[in-house]
Design brief:
The chain is an alpha/beta fold. It has a single domain, classed as Transcription Regulator spoIIAA (2-Layer Sandwich), CATH 3.30.750. The protein is 48% helix and 20% strand. It is built from four helices and seven strands, in the order E-E-E-H-E-E-H-E-H-E-H. A five-stranded mixed β-sheet has the order 1-2-4-6-7. It has a two-stranded parallel ribbon with strand order 3-5. The longest helix has 26 residues. The radius of gyration is 15 Å and the shape is globular. The termini are far apart.
Length: 130
Amino acid sequence: MQVKIDTKEKFHVITPVDTEISATMADGMRVALLPFLQSEVKNVVLNLENVTHIDEGGAEQLLQIQQEYYQENASFVSCCLQKPVEDFLTNSELIELFNITPTESEAWDIVQMEEIERELMDGEDWEEAE
């Protein structure tokens, strides 16, 4: 799966070039996205502006990737869903499980808020240990 990567200070914006995300393609995304968890900038904004079709396997793979990010104290926010993708996720009752924003700018805000939240939580853990 081809993706465009734009690296910012606190996150990477990943934009699939393909218009479809199937389970097989999502496997490719897993291979492309999980290495970011090992980098200094771990957070990802997945911009789905080009994606007009997703199947259940693809959606479930993206949810698993999102879960892995949060387990590693990193953010994974999807944005810019096209109507057919949003409708599919709604009808499949999966949309509530995704961390989704309408725009890329709002996704950036979520990542930055989650970063601040993690920093505050780390500070509290440190104070409790004293």
